[in-house]
Amino acid sequence: MTVALIDSGFGLLPTAGWLRHLAPELDLLLLLDPEGAPWGPRSASFVTDRLLSAAHLAVQRGAEAIVVPCNTATVTAIDTLREEFEARVPVIGTVPAVKPAAAAGRNLAVWATVRTTGSDYQERLIADFAGGRPVARVACPGLAEAIDHGDLDAAAEAIADAAGRTPRDCDAVVLGCTHYPLVAPQILESLPAGTVLYDSAEAVARQALRRLGRTGPSDGAPGSIEVVLSGRPGHLPAVALAYPVGRALAAAAPVPREALVSATTRAPVTAPAV
């Protein structure tokens, strides 16, 4: 059974890591778009066309589910993708974890890209799920791009800038971009002790498994991991090796729990070298 994950860059790594951890026997097809990346500043028609093209290729290669671990692509084109494929292939999108964070009674900040922070999509999400709680909108210019380039110094600068603009009374930060879990330890270190991070990668992976009817224990030999770069077979870019989950996926190795960020995280993640 093959699950395809589609994103312009490394935002698909956390969800792919959770799928590999929870159901290692699945074959994973990772479709990145380095020629079109990043999708954040692109037009809606550009993102929709790239996503549809990748999804058609995934189905041609035998994908039995399509996961879109990208907030930009989800808000822009998930309805179009579902109209095209849902009758025969489940399509799972990604939504920032505002609802569970608000349900826990937290004072919230949402860290996201500049485009997402200013989007009607995020405002609707907050209006629908924050329960009237005040929510700080914290744009993180350059952070996703720094993560895609493996530039940890630039990422640290972007994190420090965002942390400086996060109200001190916020005790929870929702990671509103799928790239951000890759630097969760650095984010936690920049925030006051006791701050909780909320991420959706684990929930998205579990929803994909439910849609596939795979809710029991995993069994069988480890599945394959294939990479497609802007429509052509390839390998994970070398900069993916800057992240523990990227190293595990590049080696088609098991993904240890320590390499992943749970749905709620309140302590720095200690990830082993793999």
TrEMBL record:
Cited InterPro entries: Asp/Glu/hydantoin_racemase, Asp/Glu_race, Asp/Glu_racemase_AS_1, Asp/Glu_racemase_AS_2
Domain of life where this protein originates: Bacteria
Keywords in alphabetical order: Isomerase
Gene Ontology MF: a single term: glutamate racemase activity
Gene3D superfamilies in alphabetical order: 3.40.50.1860
The keyword Ribonucleoprotein is annotated on this UniProt entry: no
UniProt-listed GO biological process terms: peptidoglycan biosynthetic process
Pfam families assigned: Asp_Glu_race
Name under which the protein is recorded: Aspartate/glutamate racemase family protein
